[in-house]
Amino acid sequence: MEKYIWRMQTSLFVLMAALVLGLFVFLFQGSAFLMGICFYGALFLGLVGMAMGAIVLIDYHKEHKDQE
Q1: Rounded to whole angstroms, what are the CA distances from 24 to 9, 36, 43, 49, 52?
Q2: pTM of the model
Q3: Which in 17, 20, 23, 47 has the greatest CB count within 10 A?
Q4: pLDDT value at position 17?
């Protein structure tokens, strides 16, 4: 159970980092290069964080389904 909590917290941390990079997109609107880096970084981290969270939920569900 504890391993799922840490893995879920890691995915939430990655999603929060994506949120911060998304906010930096608005901060760096004057520079196309920095805005692009922040945008694509936020997009990548957001997708990775959602995938990590989905994998944790699937693994947790499989383990508890096997115990029944």
Answers
A1: 23, 10, 12, 18, 23
A2: 0.86
A3: 17
A4: 97
